From TrEMBL:
Record's keyword terms, sorted: Membrane, Transmembrane, Transmembrane helix, Transport
Acidic residues bias: start-end ranges: 560-577
Main location class: membrane
Protein name from the UniProt record: Xanthine/uracil permease
């Protein structure tokens, strides 16, 4: 028998079964964990922290930026913590402003107001973790975006809720008193907030349903001409409803400068240093905070630029505290530790608020599409294709479910915050570890109840100077979205028609209040419908958004002559190339 035959006739070795990899995986994970916490590289890495923290001089030669950290790249611990801290501070003003405004509009006491701030911080921290995840569901659907897309109280809700509260005080759902000089004072009405929460809870199913509509179709229904218009009007209306009034001393009844009563001076006559609305002292305090933001952007380090809003608040509070404008009672009454459901609100449904709140959730979905696109772009991941569409689907679904859960958390509807994209761009860190640390800090800020008391003690002019800039940034984001349009004649027509309603509402907010006065003795259901329509028409971004959507869906698309010329040129060039190839082959 030949050696070849012997060789080929040998049985092949039997593959040994692999040892379970679970133990090896745990061992490897423990090794990585130990390396992360016991080595300099695990703590610091090779990131240039000097670039992040050193101030910059205008027109000076800029240092080379540090490396970019992608979504799931290994991230040094200190960088993850510092980036997460920057994200949390960048969100802070946007998270504390809505509950402060809600509490002021409903005349709630300091204890309840401080709780609302804490609940906002805790709820947004928890639901941001969900939004940043990318949990596979059935049929190829996802929950969350898988990006650093943190969420906060929607400014669209803020604008709409003010109109809803006005309607509640007008129809007697909430009580008010009228002084001898005609000054109307709103009494505390926590049940109004509970009705907004309950209405929000049932309306959240609309956005959940919208998340299962293909992303391409959603973008066709809500193109930049629609979303940009809505965002511009949200920012502009908030400047007029809250930013500038607070800058002048307060957005309450003291704005009318009554000659007597509790609100004769701002914020009221019991404040440490009350003054008439629009006093030079108030304007100066607000401008100090506003100017601090400008100077921080001019001279601050990248770290400070990311938190310029907080820097403006801090400087304004230091000066106003030294001048005696701060009332520390809210800090004294705030608990050291708090959490969700320490205070609760009686959940109910306010029928006239259903249609406006449905429109709010449509607006939140529109915001989500634009903000997710921006987050994907700055995170250097694909902004088209199936993966990107699934990120939009997961983000809108998370927003919808978040709206349902946030109502149970005693927080109004949430939306993705766009300002955190700036933090990603400056720090060059899109890693989700930084986002998780951001959520940790938000929850920590909320649990420490005294922090909410500090926020509540911020004087109105300081808050107004900062939020005016913040709301103007929202409007600027809308202008940026509008810039994506080619501005054909059709686009200009849609925008002009939408802004006619939006700016009209903004400049003359009472125009639709008497729309149905001619209807005699309407029944309760019909009156509720009238109130819903009035709230929608009296809210600038809702009126403008509805007009933009209707016109965008009904007006036919225009053929761009310049685009056609370019296409003809391309066709001619292609034809010439084909003819040239024929001649060469001939």
């Amino acid at each position: 028998m030949s050696p070849d035959i012997l060789t080929t006739s040998q049985p092949k070795p039997i593959a040994q079964p692999e040892v379970s990899s679970r133990g090896a995986a745990l061992k490897e994970r423990a090794s990585r964990f130990a390396k992360k916490f016991t080595t300099r590289d695990g703590w610091l890495g090779d990131y240039d922290y000097g670039w992040l923290c050193l101030p910059t001089l205008p027109y000076a030669k800029q240092k080379r930026a540090p490396p970019f950290y992608a979504l799931d790249q290994d991230l040094p611990l200190i960088l993850a913590i510092s980036s997460g801290f920057q994200h949390s501070l960048a969100m802070l003003a946007g998270l504390i402003t809505p509950p402060i405004i809600f509490a002021s509009a409903l005349s709630l006491d300091d204890e309840l107001s401080a709780y609302m701030i804490s609940a906002s911080l805790i709820g947004c921290g928890i639901l941001s973790l969900v939004q940043m995840s990318r949990i596979p569901l059935f049929g190829g659907y996802y929950l969350g975006t898988g990006l650093i897309t943190v969420v906060g109280t929607s400014f669209a809700t803020l604008s709409t809720a003010n109109a809803i509260f006005d309607a509640m005080y007008s129809d007697g759902t909430c009580s008010s008193t009228t002084a001898a000089d005609g000054t109307v004072t709103r009494l505390a009405c926590p049940d109004a907030y509970g009705k907004v929460l309950g209405t929000s809870l049932i309306c959240s199913f609309l956005e959940i349903f919208m998340s299962f509509i293909p992303a391409r179709r959603l973008k066709r229904i809500f193109p930049p001409i629609v979303t940009g218009t809505v965002i511009v009007m949200i920012g502009a209306s908030l400047i007029g409803d809250s930013g500038i009034p607070n800058w002048g001393g307060g957005a309450n009844d003291c704005m009318s400068r009554p000659t007597s009563g509790f609100f004769q001076l701002c914020p009221n006559i019991t404040a440490p240093r009350p003054l008439p609305w629009g006093s030079a002292e108030f304007i100066g305090l607000g401008f100090l905070s506003f100017a601090t933001i400008m100077l921080t952007e001019l001279f601050g380090s990248p770290f400070l630029k990311n938190i310029s809003i907080v820097v403006g608040l801090a400087v304004g509070c230091i000066v106003s505290g030294a001048a005696g404008y701060i009332d520390g009672s809210s800090i004294t009454t705030a608990p050291a530790i708090t959490f969700l459901w320490v205070h609760t609100f009686k959940i109910g449904v306010y029928p006239p608020a259903i249609l406006p709140m449905l429109a709010v959730y449509v607006s939140v979905a529109m915001e989500a599409i634009g903000d997710i696109t921006a987050s994907a772009e700055v995170s250097r991941v694909a902004v088209d294709g199936l993966e990107f569409d699934s990120r939009i689907q997961g983000g809108v679904l998370s927003d919808g479910i978040g709206g349902f859960i946030s109502a149970l958390f005693t927080v109004t509807p949430l939306s993705i915050f766009a300002q955190n994209n700036g933090v990603i761009a400056i720090t060059r860190c899109a890693n989700r570890s930084a986002g998780r640390w951001c959520c940790f800090f938000l929850i920590l800020f909320g649990v420490l109840g005294k922090i909410s008391g500090v926020f509540l003690a911020i004087p109105n002019p300081v808050l107004g100077g900062v939020t005016t800039f913040l709301f103007a940034s929202v409007a600027t984001s809308g202008i940026r979205v509008l810039a994506y349009n080619t501005f054909t004649r059709r686009d200009r027509f849609v925008l002009a028609a939408a802004l006619s309603f939006g700016f009209g509402d903004l400049l003359v907010p009472t125009i639709f209040e008497h729309l149905f006065d001619g209807v005699d003795n309407p029944n309760k259901g019909l009156q509720g419908l009238f109130d819903s329509i009035t709230i929608i028409l009296s809210t600038p971004f809702l009126a403008a958004g509805i007009m933009a959507v209707v016109l965008n869906l009904t007006l036919p698309q225009e053929f761009d002559e310049h685009e056609g010329e370019h296409d003809d040129d391309d066709d001619d060039a292609e034809l010439a190339e084909v003819e040239s190839q024929k001649h060469k082959s001939g």
